[in-house]
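Reading is simple: each integer encodes one residue's backbone shape. An example follows:

___
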Amino acid sequence: MKTEIHTIEAQTAGSIELAEHIFGLEPRADILHRVVQWQLNKRQQGTHQAKSRGEINRTTAKLGRQKGGGTARHGSRKSGIFVGGGKAFGPRFRSHETALNKKVRALGLRHALSSKARDSSLIILDKAEVAGGKTKALVQAFEKLGLANALIIDGAAVNEGFARAARSIPNIDVLPVQGINVYDILRRKKLVLTKAAIEALEARFK
């Protein structure tokens, strides 16, 4: 699969051959859904917790006589039916993480990359750098490239000036290739890969 390489000024800088086993697959929604669900589940903190009646500090003295009081025979103010009592079946501290095979995760990433290539939403840059590291210059460059909502993946290290310039631009995410993931790819309309990112991905999935 041959694709043009662009500069940050939207000029053509040659072409590159993309690996079919990474960018030429038929995207499967079920695999993408499983990987995204796994990511979101893993991201949940699970620190929500309500106190049960065993954790409430209230009196356990019987409230009245067993018979003749005209009310229910309560034995504790910790009961969930009282204001300030324990919560019955409330949320508890736990992990929301689910298991997903490593091969399925890797396959999901390749399917996400292939979906962007198939939709013509993949742009290849020669390098992610901007002169002077200015946000204004980067906004103008993105306008030329047609990038309003995009994920930009660089090589092992992101250029510091480029990352700083892109930081305050809405709907633009910049990540090193180690941080590439299915959820971020799918949530942005465009995917931008540098040549360094392509080389790293091909080495990863060779």
Notes: The longest helix spans residues 102-118. The mean pLDDT is 94.
